[in-house]
Amino acid sequence: MSDQNTPYLKNTWYVAALSTELDKDLLSRVLLDTKIVFYRKEDGTPVALLDRCPHRFAPLSMGKQCGNDVVCPYHGLAFNSEGNCTSNPHGNKRIPTKAKVPSFPLMEKHGFIWIWMGDEVADENQLPDYTTLDTGHDNAIAYTYMKWPCHYELIIDNVMDLSHVDHLHGEIITTRGQLSPQIPKLEENAGQLAASWEWKQTPPMLIFNDFLPEPGKEASHRVTVTWAKPANIQLSIGCSQGNQPITFESEESVSQYDLHVCTPESENSTHYFFVTRRNHHVEDAEYNQIKIQNMHAAFELEDGPILNAVEEAMETPDFLSLDPVLISSDAAPVRVRRTLKALIEEEHKTKLTLAS
Amino acid sequence: MSDQNTPYLKNTWYVAALSTELDKDLLSRVLLDTKIVFYRKEDGTPVALLDRCPHRFAPLSMGKQCGNDVVCPYHGLAFNSEGNCTSNPHGNKRIPTKAKVPSFPLMEKHGFIWIWMGDEVADENQLPDYTTLDTGHDNAIAYTYMKWPCHYELIIDNVMDLSHVDHLHGEIITTRGQLSPQIPKLEENAGQLAASWEWKQTPPMLIFNDFLPEPGKEASHRVTVTWAKPANIQLSIGCSQGNQPITFESEESVSQYDLHVCTPESENSTHYFFVTRRNHHVEDAEYNQIKIQNMHAAFELEDGPILNAVEEAMETPDFLSLDPVLISSDAAPVRVRRTLKALIEEEHKTKLTLAS
Amino acid sequence: MSDQNTPYLKNTWYVAALSTELDKDLLSRVLLDTKIVFYRKEDGTPVALLDRCPHRFAPLSMGKQCGNDVVCPYHGLAFNSEGNCTSNPHGNKRIPTKAKVPSFPLMEKHGFIWIWMGDEVADENQLPDYTTLDTGHDNAIAYTYMKWPCHYELIIDNVMDLSHVDHLHGEIITTRGQLSPQIPKLEENAGQLAASWEWKQTPPMLIFNDFLPEPGKEASHRVTVTWAKPANIQLSIGCSQGNQPITFESEESVSQYDLHVCTPESENSTHYFFVTRRNHHVEDAEYNQIKIQNMHAAFELEDGPILNAVEEAMETPDFLSLDPVLISSDAAPVRVRRTLKALIEEEHKTKLTLAS
């Protein structure tokens, strides 16, 4: 797919993989309709190359790593981490000038491999500050990844509009009907959009109840979802009793700090990455497993099937073109869609200007 | 799909479901490329709504029925049997003016739910008279439904041209080669087209033989297939001995009265509904099961695979555009195709006139 | 698909089937996007007809053979080996003038059924001389067929460029790295293109080693692949010790004579036919089985998956349009692609000239 027609924002950071996914094997993954091979150099530095040999177009990921290079499975051409051909075993063994594979800038941070797929120079400062993930007990953080067959913006919608929680999800994260009637508070700051809901409920949310001073008694709750381009949503949720502040840092609140990242594989498939860190019950490694299992169960059995059905009904990725009936809880996801669309259009314009 | 481009006749009655298919659960079914949710109100009245919430386009059929309303699974909006939103649990709970779902007129008759999908006012008088189905022993009538992956007009062709019987089907309904040489008699009446074949055979058709006065001896046979728009074929078949009249009402003939209805799901998939009533051996409920099993076996193992292969070979739904070699037995199905095409073109013209 | 737009060379011989595939049953096979039914007349002559009844377009291959005719399964029309309708069992039984099915010239040679699908008169002299296949011990020749889901030119590339052998394949046909550094010698003769490689290796190729005078000791090797239009590749491979000539006919060399034929089913599927004759160990019938098993294993587990991945990466059948990086070993396959493309363009031009 030519860059000219890409429906994605390109000059930005997407999560390409969990850090733990890059081990001894070559990893092949399609991101933004582009097939990429990932591996680590001998010093551990991650590498991303277009997964296509420029000779006969075999996937390099079907070959093997040899030192810091990757060797094509079909005719044995080797390429280094910058994508330059380092060996041609055929005929006079001369390396053709054109024998290069595109490589992509990577950054390893917060347990993720981030990739920059645009033509502009990769800008490390564009990544939002998620350092909260980096400190705390090792057993209080858990990662997961799943691929889901729907457009990534439907997953962004789903996380940015939490008013669906009491209608779609089960007992474990119910707000007892308290969240829906709240109109979320929106805040825009440096290109990021945050939506917050606050409410009281009795008993408190079941995921937090046991860790509160008075389980079963009324507690104040707050959840904030903060979108940053292109597809990062940081979700903070917690509760407290007795008017204590609800922040991840406060020992008086029971809170968690999550990051949802939706990287498009294609226009109807998404790599969904997720990390959750909590400020309570931090030593229990088994509890990490339970958190991740619950995330999978909720998404795969409840949100995911609805999103697939919605995508089928829409017949276009452009939700707003369908003249939907909007309600108060749509403010945040709709604003995210408009912002992202504007950023993509701006990028296309810049490209045209540079080209002319 | 916009109405302007629909390849189907719209202002007419199609069978949407067997009456027995509408029970306690929501039923989702695609008819004429349109996804519809069906349910019964508390008083039993059947309801048909577009199966798409106007908010975020989730299928209402994934939600639940609540009294006479259906509740969206994603954010809990409720809609009544006319498609009006009756509840919005979010924010100030105001119901948006646009929050409406299209509803479709239904009619329950002869054990079927009939649906009217056009823009004109539903006209109950347009349904042909099939009241023969309504009287008789409860064990002498049997219904079935199957979905088949081919264009509905191929199934109409198949039933309107019975000359294939001795070539494609097995012993149970063989005419011993007597039917093919007969040129069917065509009659057109009030928009309905009937084709009849008459012949004698020894032994009689096996499905009737045991119920005749002299099993194994020559009998006169008659079969009539009568098409009515859009996709209803009433098939009467029977036989008698000793020059007795062959009618469903006559006690001297062994006869059955069937209705085949082919409702398009899409351009290459059909909902095939079938009912058969007989005037003999009326009390045997197990015989009903056998009749239905035989219908399935004949269609699924013999007609159906041929129709699928024909559709694949045709590469277009427009049979007549392929310049087929026609023979005498094609008169009825070809006339049905021409009539239906003219009706659809007329409907498109009317729509254009109204629009201008 | 109309002839005007066909991407294939038409006035030429393709293998349609192994001789042994035509037995008592009708065989249906799609060649060059065209569905064809094959059978043998009572005297054994093979017949090829368009697999589509001109009446209602049912596949004749779903019917049955009756003497020298084939009978349509749907309404019983019969067609002879020239495609003329010989029986219509309906109405007055008159045979409609238009009731004809296209038939295709066949030639049975070297254990294959060859088909001519173009409009020009079939020219038996166009088939290259493969008579080497016809003489020798019955247990020294083995045939196989497989269908593979990729464009046929990718398989031609693969056989015409043997420099992939040491990179993609395993121990059994390794040249110990000796083949890749050789620049193949190209020879063009009467429209056929041959590429040859010569080298010495120790130990000799394992498929030949045991049959040499001094197993394990150095041997001279030669392989030649000779392409003839449209998709025939004759591969000769062998080795000898002590400067003996390497030819199939020479008793001093251990050699085999193979034919690879790739007939397009469609633009992304190929009928791959293969025959191998050897000049050594000729009486062992079980060894034939092993040769065929090895051919399947190498292609299905090694070449085939790479070709599928290459096709997916290319997104077009036109390899040269993708500006590939070419190396010395690409000379032969690239010249074949250019020759075949020129022949197809010439055929289209001739057709246009004739039409105007």
TrEMBL record, chains A, B, C:
Record InterPro entries: Cholesterol_7-desaturase, Rieske_2Fe-2S, Rieske_2Fe-2S_sf, VanA_C_cat
Keyword Oxidoreductase part of the UniProt annotation: yes
Pfam families documented for this protein: Rieske, VanA_C
Residue stretches in coiled coil: none
GO molecular function (one): dioxygenase activity
Domain Vanillate O-demethylase oxygenase-like C-terminal catalytic: 148-346
Signal sequence interval, chain numbering: none
UniProt keyword list: 2Fe-2S, Dioxygenase, Iron, Iron-sulfur, Metal-binding, Oxidoreductase
Keyword Iron applies: yes
Domain of life: Bacteria
Domain Rieske: 12-101
Gene3D superfamilies on file: Naphthalene 1,2-dioxygenase Alpha Subunit, Chain A, domain 1, Rieske [2Fe-2S] iron-sulphur domain
Record-given protein name: Aromatic ring-hydroxylating dioxygenase subunit alpha
Organism this protein belongs to: Amphritea atlantica
Lineage: Bacteria, Pseudomonadati, Pseudomonadota, Gammaproteobacteria, Oceanospirillales
